[in-house]
Amino acid sequence: MRGLHADTGYLLYRLGLRSGQLFNTFLQESGLRLRHYAVLRFLSTAEGALQRELSAQLGYDPSAIVGLVDDLEKQGFAERRPSPDDRRSRIVVLTEDGRAFLRDTDEAGQRVTNDLLGPLDQAERASLHTLLQRITEDGLG
After folding, report:
1. pTM of the full predicted structure?
2. In 3-state terms, what secondary structure has residue 120?
3. Containing H/E element for 128?
């Protein structure tokens, strides 16, 4: 394992897997998965988004977005509405129930983060967060 642990990319991959497992475990009762949560979190920062924007911003295949939004609509957490800019297009909007779900999951999400970052002190956590933001913004768009 020493060779693998010398590879930063592999360590990020393993951390991502573990993070996904923990998030999916805490979301299990709701019937949602981390991909649904990501859509909801994105919508919480927007006034609505076209499905193609969700696909581009989240890095998900456009066909996957259709199914995720369908699931979120069934739960009452998101809805498709006519776009104010183009009535032929539909935007996806977070509902009040979706906002409430996110508020209810904030504490559990923080527990997942604390579990993952347990070995780090507050200053190290802040540094890691800043570095990950920079990598994400510069490298992933």
Report:
1. 0.80
2. coil
3. helix 122-139
